[in-house]
Amino acid sequence: MSAASYLVPLPVIVPLLGAGITLAFSHHPRVQRLATIITLSFVLGVAAVLLVLADRDGPQVVHVGGWPAPLGITLVADRLSTLMLCVSIAVTLCVLLFSLGQGLADQDAQTPVSIYHPTYLVLSAGVSNAFLSGDLFNLYVGFEILLAASYVLLTLGGTSARVRAGTTYVVVSLLSSLLFLIALAMIYAATGTMTMADLAIKLPALPSGVRVTLEAMLLLAFGIKAAVFPLSAWLPDSYPTAPAPVTAVFAGLLTKVGVYAIMRTETLLFPGGRLADVLMWAALFTMLVGILGAVAQSDIKRLLSFTLVSHMGYMVFGIALGSQAGLAGAIFYVAHHIIIQTTLFLVTGLIERRGGSTNVGDLGGLATVAPGLAILFFIPAMNLAGIPPFSGFLGKVGLLQAGVDDGGVVAWVLVAGGTLTSLLTLWAVSKIWTKAFWQAPTPSVLARGGGGRSRKGGTAMLESGGRSNREPALSAAMVAPTAALVAMGVALTIFAGPLFGLSSRAAADLRDRTPYINAVMGATT
Predict the structure, then answer these.
(1) How does pLDDT run along the chain (525 residues), one tens digit per residue?
(2) 27 φ, ψ to 5°?
(3) 159: how many CB neighbours lie within 10 A of its CB?
(4) Chain mean position to CA 157
(5) What residue segments make up the domains of the chain, in order of their start?
(6) What is the CA radius of gyration of the chain?
(7) Angle of helix 255-268 relative to helix 79-106, nearest 10 degrees?
(8) 522: which residues sit within 8 A by CB, 6+ positions away?
(9) DSSP readout, 479-495?
(10) Is 508 exposed, middle or buried (0-12, 13-18, 19+ CB in 10 A)?
(11) Burial of residue 97 (number of CB atoms within 10 Å: 0-12, 13-18, 19+)
(12) Distance of alpha carbon 476 from alpha carbon 341, whole angstroms
């Protein structure tokens, strides 16, 4: 095993160690904050190094415990997994800084920091484990780690609305996990292995009907996690009730782990699968049903939750095409969407804090009273809508061009559906822009002036709202990480060429499969 390979487990191990440290210092909030920031910053540096190494030298592989594949657990850092790792950790760090700034601004002694910090780090470890996993059972473990942490984060504060939404989320998550576990049992019974590289070799020898059944089971389990239609109804009711930082990190990351799992298994285990057309139709209905739900909303959180569902369709579209251009477009769009969707939910938290509500009917005049906030919303909103020259436009053009190159009837239907979805997304975010920022200010907005927002109960660190009208509406410690994410979204546009190049190389690896299989099955301990 090369010296560089020793870096591969660190994005999983270090956050778990950090969680233990923050739990041990549960009565020392400053130590917890510092430990969490240092942990995520270190992991971000490791992820960046792994991305460079994977792009330069190929997949970096570690056989945990020295057990060679397919006997033990394998962690693999290739171009796709390290790109996802870098983007996810960067977003996680920015959201953490936002939540810390909010807690410092509100100075609420009832904030559950002793729970929040270790849980947040466990969530990060689960996401990293899912991205790096080289076998299906460890992927299942990664999902369970991040889901267990998400159950806690979703219900922080203990309000009836959060508990109710959390119950729905838990039930749906347990159902998807059960389906995943059944699929694992079926796969192991058919092949005798869980290592994905080994499965890529053994699955083609199975009868066609068995392969299709196994593929369908995995797609069903991952489709729920990725909120793909018709398995997406749970998301708009679950995410909006959570605190702004929690909603932001959920929207940015959790569904993308499901998309990553679909991408990895479809390309590595079932290349040219017989369910590609089913995926295309699922992508189409995910786009259209999600965006039609979005345009009907008046609450910003629910509107963004529906756009989150809708834009999952673009990623599934690229995966279903299976071409290098389609996969490259999907990879680029996943990276873009993680950053942009997270940014918009953080901005929504600022809007709620400044305006006292997320319902556009209760807002107005924010462009006048908070011009900086207007800029923070406008840039990612236009990016999400796909207005040129932003990365959202570039990603959509790449995906639609891949559909045109495919030339199939269903692909052309998807191209039309993707174009319509983009236009309706522009309509949806424009509704927020015109009503919340440009219509006449409502009395409540004028009355708040520079004030914060009074709320019942504690957990202010994770809430969207201040404590009294005498406090500043927006803390610089909250605005700065939000602005950093906006800048990251702009950077995606500026460096779209290199990112598309990396995405294309990652897509080529996915289609070839040989580098991944050889690295895992031929790697020495």
Answers:
(1) 566 678 999 999 999 999 999 999 988 888 999 999 999 999 999 999 999 999 998 899 998 877 777 878 899 999 999 999 999 999 999 999 998 888 777 765 444 567 889 999 999 999 999 999 999 999 999 999 998 998 888 877 666 766 776 788 888 889 999 999 999 999 999 999 999 999 999 999 999 999 999 999 999 999 998 989 888 888 887 777 777 888 888 888 888 999 999 999 999 999 887 788 899 999 999 999 999 999 998 889 999 999 999 999 999 999 999 999 999 999 999 999 999 999 999 999 999 888 888 888 888 788 888 889 999 999 999 999 999 999 999 999 999 999 999 988 999 999 999 999 999 999 999 999 998 888 776 655 555 554 433 333 333 344 434 344 444 457 888 899 999 999 999 999 999 999 999 999 999 999 999 989 998 888 443
(2) -100, 10
(3) 16
(4) 23
(5) 3-521
(6) 22
(7) 170
(8) none
(9) HHHHHHHHHHHHHHHHT
(10) middle
(11) buried
(12) 21
DSSP 8-state code for residue 299:
B
Cβ(258)–Cβ(225) under 8 Å? yes
Of the candidates 190, 410, 380, 385, the one whose C-alpha atom is nearest the C-alpha of residue 283 is: 410
What does the block give as tokens for 444?
Answer: 């409540």
